[in-house]
Amino acid sequence: MNEADVRERLADVRDPDLGDDIVSLGLVNDVEVEAGEDRGSGTVRVSLALGAPFSPNESAIADDVRAALADTEFDVELSASIPDDLAADEQVLPGVQNVIAVASGKGGVGKSTVAVNLAAGLSALGARVGLFDADVYGPNVPRMVSAEQRPETDGETIVPPERFEVKLMSMDFLTGEDDPVIWRGPMVHKIITQLVEDVEWGELDYLVMDLPPGTGDTQLTILQTLPLTGAVIVTTPQDVALDDAVKGLRMFGKHDTNVLGIAENMAGFRCPDCGGFHEIFGSGGGKALAADHDLPFLGGIPLDPDVRTGGDDGEPVVLEDGETADAFKVLVENVANNAGVVRRRGVSDGR
């Protein structure tokens, strides 16, 4: 078997999102066939252009590649990477594969809750994850993951603490307890830029950014500074939240940033006493918003006291069992899948 034989077999493997085979899409970086001592055996090494580690759809592509070569006598070794066009010293975060911003048009919709559970959920899948709490005016992440350890520094670099195997950085680490944060635009730009450059994130599959609500200086700095894979927009079903979510969509659109989808938080409450389901903030607003703007709907998260308890006690509910945990796990998988679509489409379109 030679390289052409391998590529012929791989032409039967289809990308479930892009709608064509991985060879035609340019998702096979390289094929190397190493013959063994016995004729017809050896090792096949295939490098795939997959950019969202542990996403279900990319894992399925890898499984299909193995299956396409399973009836040969060759061992199959797979690797995955999407080369960056910039040199390492020109990259802002050279060790980070995907930067995902979690945003909302207004406060009070559970954006930080989604960011924390997204990061913890990705880590639970096996990914290497960082969580950057960039909400300069209301940093809540340390409490929501019960992060008692503070960052360490040698005066030049900052080593982030870890919780649930997620590397953490927060504006809360930089201020005194209960101190008000009064920072103007230039100060916000400076501190965000410094943290991006000075924190030792290391090798990460995903860096989740919890942005402040709205469309202000922090968002602008991040959009101008970081290579975002995409953004997750969090809303509740009610009209006033949806109106503000549209403003967030337009902000990312103006900066040519992919929106990975809409997450609808507080999507109904199931009464633990009567078992009834009550749509306190309305019904289906997030899903309709996604449809109106031709965007993926990432899922609905119910209004659940366990989410509040998990946030206050520092135990993300996505790591538990139950209906709400399952809803968060669906959201996590959808975000990872859509990040993969963005990365693979970039490879295919840029051939």
UniProtKB/TrEMBL annotation:
InterPro entries in the record: FSCA_dom_sf, MIP18-like, Mrp-like_CS, Mrp/NBP35_ATP-bd, NUBPL-like, P-loop_NTPase, YlxH/NBP35
Q: Give the binding site residues for ATP.
A: G105, K106, G107, G108, V109, G110, K111, S112
Which keywords does the record carry? Answer: ATP-binding, Hydrolase, Iron, Iron-sulfur, Metal-binding, Nucleotide-binding
Q: Which domain of life is it from?
A: Archaea
Q: Name one GO molecular function term.
A: ATP-dependent FeS chaperone activity
What's an example Gene Ontology biological process for this entry? iron-sulfur cluster assembly
Q: Which residues form the MIP18 family-like domain?
A: 3-74
CDD domains listed in its UniProt record? Mrp_NBP35 (cd02037)
Task performed by this protein: Binds and transfers iron-sulfur (Fe-S) clusters to target apoproteins. Can hydrolyze ATP.
Q: How does it assemble?
A: Homodimer.
Family to which the UniProt record says this protein belongs: Belongs to the Mrp/NBP35 ATP-binding proteins family.
Q: What is this protein called?
A: Iron-sulfur cluster carrier protein
